[in-house]
């Protein structure tokens, strides 16, 4: 820290860097040792130069230069001024402390290891990096090191049985190891890893760095060279401790398999670019993907060596009845589907689903919806569970369009959520209807579903009531503060009291899902035009769920016309007018007046279609 002294009351005289960025205890360390009061502030130390009197003992001629230097620099600071002392952090330009600068301060003056890029930054598992580090610093327990410790050892290299086993011999000179290096260099197009191109050196670190320093594809060379060295070490251990040995060719095959696994895990740099181009062309020409889709999908299929399995998968999908476009959409969403085994995975899954009663057309519709889950045999047991829950494959397919419930964990998510809903008094039929109308509800985190249940109760709908399912549907998409804002908007728009808005929401919870614009238009029509009292609307809030243009307004005009022309024998409430079904409304209010108003039905039908006439005709 650097201190800018003003009043000197908070800056330490000895410890803070207030003298041109330096602290007195560093300027005069021997004088500091003689000081009696080391915790004085600058203000107290400069008062009558009391810091001089604090120096106890003899200031010898050897210490005199330090004392004079300190005295001169203290005198040069001048007089103290008004205001608080200001402290700034030296390691940032702004002078403000940051944990990042404090962290980097630990490495000031440190040197960077040449192994950082070659070993620690290499794309490889951590255990192989640790092994490579031990190899580079010559700490592997080869026979020479075991002999130095007087531990049991086999003396000879277990791979060639010719020389004393040392780090240098095992990885650079052994004939078996050199053949493996040469084969790997040729197979993966890495000339720097070929023994013929190695520089002559006895330093293992220098040799290891030389494998990747001049490589055209350094990242690829680092990963594969570490894997080859790891394979050599593994072969040595297998021969010593298990009595098992492999040929160089079999060891090379295991490296190829490991590279494939690494590629699956994200090592895209391990496959040549021309291979990716071949995969892209296959995806475009055979699978029907667009070029951008193929480029994205090929990154996940860089391990694909032959199109044989992919061709079998496409033929299997066609046999199920999937069109080319559907198959292309499936591959675009899950490229690894082309790697699934038809005989071991896909065919058994289809057979299991058929055993549950699903038709081939249903299975074909499920494939694009379930995506990667059809590559797992557990999909059959999950489908059995959901079919019992939703009652039919049709209901399940409706849910799957919006939420892939097959991806949800049954034990940790679905079953706890189902138990919670059942505890709220919902039966299996109610839960199925709720999940169909709100597909993602069952896939929610159980804590989130508990919060939704609490919100449904807070809007005045008790558990076990007939409307509780509708309340859950209404509040599920919103956070608690959003629900409060919507309730407040309802109160202001319909001029309701707290009790009235609570009554309206509890009788028709889905009013919370209506847009502000639609609620405003309904308010203007029902209160201003139809003349209904706000309390009347709150008591019968279900009318807010009816279409304004397709139901409320046309029926209001039709009944108003009948009243104005004296055709109604009794005065029916508008709630009765609005709640009746279309067939019942016409039977009660339209058909009895065909003779007196022959055009009424035609005008009413036109109004329901949005063609609201100015006046209903009467002849």
Strand order of the largest sheet: 1-2
Task: Write down the overall geometry.
Answer: flat
Strand content: under 5%
Task: Output the number of helix runs.
Answer: 34
Structural class: mainly alpha
Q: What is the rounded Rg?
A: 41 Å
Distance between the termini: 98 Å
Helicity range: 55-70%
What is the residue-mean pLDDT, rounded to a whole number? 85
The total beta strand count reads 2
Q: Tell me the major beta sheet.
A: 2 strands, antiparallel
User: What are the low-pLDDT stretches, counting only 5+ consecutive residues below 50?
Assistant: none
Q: Can you walk through the features of this model?
A:
With 619 residues, the chain is mostly helical. Among the domains are: 2-105, no CATH class; 115-270, no CATH class; 480-545, no CATH class; 548-608, no CATH class. Helices cover 57% and strands 1% of the residues. It is built from 34 helices and 2 strands. The protein has a two-stranded antiparallel ribbon with strand order 1-2. Helix 8 (126-136) packs across helix 13. The longest helix is centred in the middle third of the chain and has 25 residues, at 218-242. The protein is flat, with a radius of gyration of 41 Å. The model has no long low-confidence stretch (mean pLDDT 85).
Layout of secondary structure:
Layout: E1 2-4, H1 24-27, H2 29-34, H3 42-46, H4 50-54, H5 64-76, E2 86-88, H6 99-105, H7 115-120, H8 126-136, H9 143-148, H10 167-173, H11 175-187, H12 204-213, H13 218-242, H14 248-264, H15 273-285, H16 291-298, H17 308-320, H18 324-333, H19 342-355, H20 360-370, H21 379-390, H22 393-400, H23 410-423, H24 428-437, H25 446-458, H26 468-475, H27 480-494, H28 498-507, H29 516-529, H30 534-539, H31 548-564, H32 574-579, H33 582-590, H34 600-608
Antiparallel strand pairs: 1-2
Helix pairs in contact: 8-13, 11-13, 11-14, 15-16, 20-22, 22-24, 23-25, 24-26, 25-26, 27-29, 31-34
